[in-house]
Amino acid sequence: MGESKWMGKRWEEMDTDVLVKIFKELNLVELSPVSQVCRLWRLACSDPLIWGTLDFGLLKSNFIQTRASPYIWVDDRSDKRLAKILRVAMAISRGNVNCMIFHYNLYMKDEHLHYISQRSPNLKRLVMPAWNRISRAGICQAIERWGELESLTMPTIGHPPYIMEGLANSCKNFKELKIMGSFDLLFASAVTTYLPKLKVLSLRCSKVTMGALQCVLNSLEHLEV
């Protein structure tokens, strides 16, 4: 046993494509320290195959609901943790992210959204968290940067026209909208006015008024799903 030799490769001698296949099985939190082991591992961690989808679905804020706007209080440590994870993810991904998913209870702020929109110009699909701490200017600025966006999943919002208008003006290939929450006539009118060529509209688990449903069915001639 003492004279036997291990004939396999050492970790630092692994081919990049092998490392990429291994690292694809790790989540975002696990990838962060892995990317700092050595230059070769950081190079493998930056491969576009790993960063096609950036899933924050397990990351939630530590929050308390309040009676005053924005109706939520978030622990400062949650904000700092999110900022740290975003810095690492955006640095390693090198702009290769085309799908980004956030948990509904991840209450990000304008500064977080600004940071990721600057560093993910090729984004095609986005699943948004709750709007509570994101301003109108913040979301409009982000949409302007995401010209390649094709799909948006979003919570319902009090005044939807400005978001629909932003998508129409900046995202020429936009075709899929998924709403979580209530969908009334105002929302439906905004969708049909600014996104008449929409192909997919998902209202699963949403409260839909009859007027909104009629508006959609009568106006969205290109709707497929």
TrEMBL record:
Do you know which Pfam families this protein is assigned to? F-box-like (PF12937)
> What is the top-level taxon of the source organism?
Eukaryota
Q: Where are the transmembrane segments?
A: none
Recorded hits in InterPro entries, A to Z, give:
F-box-like_dom_sf (IPR036047), F-box_dom (IPR001810), LRR_dom_sf (IPR032675)
Tell me where in this chain the F-box domain is found.
Answer: 14-54
Q: What is this protein called?
A: F-box domain-containing protein
- Name the source organism: Aegilops tauschii subsp. strangulata
